[in-house]
UniProtKB/TrEMBL annotation:
Pfam families: FGE-sulfatase, fn3. PANTHER family: FORMYLGLYCINE-GENERATING ENZYME, SULFATASE MODIFYING FACTOR 1, 2. Residues 44-136, 140-236 form the Fibronectin type-III domain. Residues 1-29 form the signal peptide. CDD domains: FN3. This is Fibronectin type-III domain-containing protein. It comes from Phocaeicola dorei CL03T12C01. It comes from the Bacteria.
């Protein structure tokens, strides 16, 4: 047996099996300072989300949400019982898979592909077992059991246990007020996130079960759930853990405050690009979160599509724009999975956020480096060899690691001289050069590792990584 065709339930178009080559070439430049190059597109698209599979008589219907990248092109679907592939064009987001054998178990893997041929991370359905329809069957399946729910910011997450009927196919969810169009969840998923709800309003949900013959149960009604925008102000230096596609990372809370950015004293001394620190000025920042460590290879791969890699070694050889794209995709995943509120977003830190966090925020003790006046206590330099695992040196006052040495870190701002005017939440988006901060294992000149040193750059090299922020 093989999955012989897919028919779009939206267009009626039957798609032909096709195999697409994977473009997996990853080019990272190890270039000297100020050397530029033209970057090929090697960044894969994000994975599909909200994948849902509904079994029928000799068929399975798949529904999903496409990624949001502009260059996303199509989804490739493979069946566990066939080596062939089929593509579904961008925007269709559904496929009816026919010609299946009732009683046999199938899984389906969906892989996103962009216009350059880059393939994203695959998402796999739960096991699907098509069931034949008994024309005389007028008995609906049993109701779901163990129904529970959790209200969040503008959303409610429902969880339940499916009935055990062999011909059970899906759960149909409606809610009041407003949710009259049924949300269908296939067998095995047993969870639904209902988003777009109004904070402060109580919602009641009705869950009905349906079998392959279309018989539907009377349904059960949930308790009332009231979404709320919860605002919690943690202490400065507090931590919060997140998991993205199986990779865990930690964010540190930086309470907002006012500090002196730049260093006229450092700028007056000789050294490469040391003058960039000139014009000390007052900066006031709102509160935000910042990565406890530099972005690791594992986290980068979990977000960018390939998976795998060390969760202790920082990613390097990345450009500033790739860092921004990484943060954008991380942000999309976090929102889709309900990990962060709708009004918060991941990005790479602004230059002011980076410097304030490196100095220890409102807990600063005025150290030259991030957490110490002795560089060897907090940062890896060329005296120590190449890239090291994160969190091997002591943290700074906020509990943040490796803001000096190991790998340089891109910030969001474009390069420009400081002015002496006070600023609030500054971010410069004009210019042709980028900014890397913190020094790296390539150097041992102490001045490069101070919390105020800023290096203007146009490309990348094997010494540059990134960190993330959340606000």
């Amino acid at each position: 047996m093989k999955c012989s065709s897919i028919k779009s339930s939206k267009t009626g178009k039957r798609h032909v099996w096709a195999v697409f080559p994977l473009l997996s070439l990853l080019l990272f430049a190890a270039c000297g300072e100020n050397e530029t190059f033209e970057e090929p597109d090697t960044v894969p698209p994000s994975a599909v989300t909200a994948l849902n599979a509904i079994v029928g008589d000799g068929q399975v219907t798949l529904n999903w949400t496409d990624p949001t990248e502009d260059d996303f092109d199509h989804v490739e679907i493979t069946c566990s019982r066939s080596e062939e592939k089929i593509f579904v064009e961008k925007g269709i987001q559904t496929a009816l898979i026919t010609g299946l054998i009732n009683g046999e178990e199938y899984t389906f893997s969906l892989t996103t592909v962009d216009a350059a041929g880059n393939a994203g991370r695959s998402v796999v359905t739960p096991p699907c077992i098509p069931v034949s329809v008994d024309p005389g069957d007028v008995t609906p399946p049993a109701e779901v059991s163990e129904l529970s729910g959790e209200a969040g910011n503008g959303k409610v997450t429902l969880r339940w246990t499916d009935p055990t009927d062999a011909d059970f196919a899906k759960v149909s969810i409606t809610y009041s007020p407003g949710g009259t169009t049924a949300i269908e969840i296939g067998k095995g998923r047993q969870e639904a996130v209902i988003a777009g709800l109004k904070n402060g309003s109580e919602y009641v949900f009705t869950l009905k079960t349906a079998d392959v013959a279309g018989n539907m149960s009377a349904g059960i009604v949930s308790d009332g759930f009231t979404p709320e925008a919860t605002v919690v102000t943690p202490p400065s230096g507090a931590s919060a853990d997140y998991t993205i596609n199986g990779v865990r990372f930690t964010m540190i809370y930086v309470e907002g405050g006012t500090f002196t950015m730049g260093s006229d004293a450092e700028a007056a001394l000789p050294g490469t690009q040391r003058a960039n620190q000139a014009h000390e000025h007052q900066v006031t920042l709102s509160s935000y979160w910042i990565g406890e460590t530099e972005v690791t290879i594992a986290l980068w791969n979990a977000v960018m599509g390939s998976g795998g890699g060390s969760n202790t070694t920082p990613i390097a050889s990345i450009t500033r724009n790739q860092s921004v794209e990484f943060a954008r995709r991380l942000n999309d995943i976090a929102h889709n999975q309900g990990l962060i509120p709708d009004d918060m977003n991941f990005q790479i830190p602004t230059e002011a956020q980076w410097e304030f966090a490196a100095k220890g925020g409102n807990k600063s003790k005025g150290y030259t480096y991030s957490g110490s006046n002795k560089l060897s206590q907090v940062g890896w330099t060329s005296n120590d060899g190449g890239i090291h695992a994160v969190k091997q040196k002591q943290p700074n006052e906020l509990g943040i690691y490796d803001m000096n040495g190991n790998v340089y870190e891109w910030v969001y701002d474009m390069a420009a001289p400081y002015t002496t005017q006070p600023q609030t939440d500054p971010c410069n988006t004009s210019g042709s050069q980028y900014i890397k901060r913190g020094g790296s294992f390539y150097y041992n000149d102490a001045y490069r590792f101070t919390s105020t040193y800023r290096y203007f750059y146009t490309s990348t090299d094997y010494t540059i990584g990134t960190r993330i922020s959340l606000r």
